[in-house]
Amino acid sequence: MDPGFRNGRFPGGRILFQSACQLLDSPWWEAFRFPHRDHKEDIMKTTCTLAIIATLAGGTIFDSAAETPMRSKDLPATIAAEPGLTTFTRLVKAAGLEATLHRSGPYTILAPNDDAFRMLPAGTLEKLLKPSNKQRLADLIAYHIVPGDFPSAKIDTEEHATLQGSKLVLNHALGTIWVGRAEVIKKDVESGNGTVHIINMVLEPDRE
User: Fold this and answer.
1) Which range is least confidently modeled, 24-33, 83-92, 127-136, 172-181?
2) CA distance 111 to 187
3) Is residue 178 packed enough to be buried (19+ CB in 10 Å), middle (13-18) or exposed (0-12)?
4) Where are the beta strands (DSSP E) in 58-142?
5) Helix, strand or coil, per DSSP, at residue 116
6) Residue 100: its pLDDT value, please?
7) Structural domain boundaries of the chain?
């Protein structure tokens, strides 16, 4: 962290305040001639007031920046940026759910990695990607999406309704998070409108 910051605050405003007041009280400043003494006092009050405002504003701005984590990408961009989620990213688009994840939320996505999709029976993905199976694909992907933002710190052992309508049990025990039969192998991938947890199995509504 920049040494000019202290506990999220930028002390420049305070330094400006102290320096301005010292300068206006110094003999050097007296070299300037003012028609009335009140002019100097007015300038001092104005300068010190502005310095106080800078101190407070600077502290507020930098406190907010320090306390708010950067979450610039939305969920579709976040999953697309993960190297192991190529298949899931493609299926989200094919299911027509990309717009939902882009404009609303927050959501928690339980995203199967590419290896998880490779474990499906041969031909499963090809069947799901047929236009006639679009609703089935949408239901499958929606089953991996939970409304609300649930980073690992908020997960205990409880049941959550999915975007598909069925429910999933999230279980956090001994440092490991389980989603039905699947294990979370990478947690807390943060996004601007939710959180992504990467899992090692494709979840099926009729089996979890």
Assistant:
1) 24-33
2) 10
3) middle
4) 107-112
5) helix
6) 93
7) 12-67, 75-199
63 or 112: which carries more pLDDT confidence? 112
HSE at residue 203, side-chain half, CA atoms within 13 A, is 31
What three-state secondary structure class fits 48?
A: helix
Average pLDDT over residues 119-131: 95
Dihedral sign computed on CA atoms, order 15, 16, 22, 27: positive
Q: Which residues contact 137 (CB under 8 A, 6 or more apart)?
A: 91, 94, 95, 128, 129
Tokens of 117: 């999709």
At 2 the three-state DSSP class reads coil
Q: Which two tokens stand for residue 63?
A: 């406190």
Report helix, strand and coil shares of the chain as percent, to nearest 5.
Answer: 45, 20, 30
Q: Match 């069947």 to its residue by tokens.
A: 127
Handedness of CA 31, 35, 38, 39 (dihedral sign): negative
- CATH class label, 75-199: mainly beta
Report DSSP state, residue 204: -
By C-alpha distance, which of 104, 93, 105, 102 is closest to 74?
A: 102
108 contacts 148 by C-beta, under 8 angstroms: yes
Residue 144 CB-half CA count within 13 A: 29
Contact 100, 92 (CB under 8 A): no
The residue written with tokens 């199976």 in the block is 133
115 C-beta neighbours (distance < 10 Å), count:
12
- Counting DSSP H helices and E strands in the chain, the numbers are 9, 7
